[in-house]
Specification:
about 170 residues; Rna Polymerase Sigma Factor, Chain: A; 2 domains
Amino acid sequence: MDYGRDSTFLQHINAHIGIARKVSRVYTEDDWQKEDLFQEMMYQLWKSYPGFKGDSTFSTWMYRVCLNTAMTFRKNATRHKARSIPLENHDVPETVKNIDAVEELYAAIATLERLNKAIILLYLDDLSYEEIASVTGLTKSNVSVRLVRIKKELENKLRPKDNPESYVNH
């Protein structure tokens, strides 16, 4: 056992645990699936950690592993329902006062196509277009085009039903 490596891994994971929570939140439907996916992401991160060479930031590498795991995660898990675990750590900025708006945003993101979910999560975490391209395997220009479309799609989903001309600003 390499205790130095283990300790460094745990420090990195603890500093960026919100990444895995956010990804599991938008790629699954129920609490037990969120927890299953979260556990699978932790396993894949641990298994892949020896290959992390520092060519990118740890958070960018973690996003890549978590998103790849989420995109291949089997929805029809054979495991019994696990107990619900509160998902409080979502790295939501303190400036967000309206929890309902945050929940509405996550619900809208959850309806997006798999790759678009990944792109918008990375964008909302302030990754550059280059970093998003690196994580997703897209070109920088493709990321830019997709983000315009994703923002428009989310804007339409978040537009209040009683006033279709206005929209929620996030």
